[in-house]
Amino acid sequence: MAEDPELAAIRARRMAEMQAQSGGVGGADQMKKQQEAMQREKEMKNSMLAQILDQGARARLNSIALVKPEKAAMIENMLIQMARSGQLGGKMTEEGLVGVLEKVNQQMANKNKVTITRRRYAMDSDSDDD
């Protein structure tokens, strides 16, 4: 059975972290290996996104990444998960990406919503009972 390339990268990164924690010998070498593993992981993520998104959608996601990198990373991870679970049928267009963005924005708006309720007292100056 073929191993998932992203899973292999995660395992390699975790193994490098464990080795760095267990022995501090060769710190520069470990740092170089970690940087290489992170670079490979980033390249695999970009190649997966290139397979998932068409050119317009990819351009929109890149422009979002310039303004809000955390949000773009969250959307990228969500798209990769959707592709792995078979929820995407072919390449996603820019319109499809806009739909996903609207759902994410809606979820984030509900999450960050603050409601203020004011108590009314018997001697409220705004009451109409003068």
From TrEMBL:
An example Gene Ontology biological process: apoptotic process
Sorted UniProt keywords: Acetylation, Apoptosis, Phosphoprotein
Superkingdom to which the source organism belongs: Eukaryota
Gene Ontology molecular function terms on file: DNA binding
Region of interest: Disordered: 18-44
Pfam families in the cross-refs: dsDNA_bind
GO CC term, one of those recorded: cytosol
Compositionally skewed regions (Basic and acidic residues) per UniProt: 30-44
Similarity section: Belongs to the PDCD5 family.
PANTHER family: PROGRAMMED CELL DEATH PROTEIN 5 (PTHR10840:SF0)
Job of this protein: May function in the process of apoptosis.
Listed name of the protein: Programmed cell death protein 5
Lineage: Eukaryota, Metazoa, Cnidaria, Hydrozoa, Hydroidolina
